[in-house]
Design goal:
- This protein has helices at about 25-45, 60-75, 95-110, 115-130, 135-155.
- With about 160 residues, it is mainly alpha-helical.
- Helix 3 (about 95-110) packs antiparallel against helix 4 (about 115-130) and helix 4 (about 115-130) runs antiparallel to helix 5.
- It is flat, with a radius of gyration of 20 Å.
Length: about 160
């Protein structure tokens, strides 16, 4: 009787995984995380941090940005010892496409409201990037948009641009 645990059905086997990333890739990734965290922290600072008793609109983004910076520094410190990160491959471009669509989403949300861009972004991510069926993509994207509308506009009264 074997003592090895069989691999889960949804986990790729070691043969199907891309090769491990090297130290340079790990350092580049850590640098990108620190730079993005720094840019976000600068934006949060411009929003106004407020005080502990009266937080400003930049408080939460500043906390998340600071966490990104700290995690990026830890990632850089562990770059030589890490062997579980994978090399960038052609499928890694999907992440760049996802980030690009999110940038486009942020650019148009103030112009046409959040409903149409949210539905289109969710549909694109589900159908194109996730390769879900047409039915699933349409139902989930419209359902998520309605749920976000009900939560943020209806229940929480968040001041975001919206059509209705």
């Amino acid at each position: 009787m074997s003592t090895e645990t069989p691999a889960a059905a949804d986990e790729p086997s070691d043969d199907a995984r891309p090769p491990a990333a090297g130290t340079v890739t790990n350092l580049v990734t850590a640098t990108v995380v620190v730079v993005l965290g720094g840019a976000a922290l600068a934006g949060a600072w411009n929003l106004g941090l407020g005080s502990p008793s009266k937080p400003g609109p930049g408080t939460w983004p500043a906390l998340v940005s600071t966490a990104l910076i700290i995690l990026g520094v830890f990632l850089a410190a562990a770059a030589r010892r890490m062997d579980d990160a994978e090399q960038f491959t052609r499928t890694s471009l999907l992440v760049i496409v996802a980030v690009g669509t999110m940038v486009a989403y942020v650019a148009v949300i103030s112009v046409i409201g959040f409903e149409i861009p949210t539905a289109l972004l969710a549909f694109f991510w589900l159908r194109i990037l996730g390769r879900e069926s047409w039915r699933t993509s349409i139902v989930v994207s419209l359902g998520a948009t309605c749920a976000f509308y009900a939560l943020f506009v209806g229940a929480l009264k968040v001041a975001i641009p919206h059509l209705f």
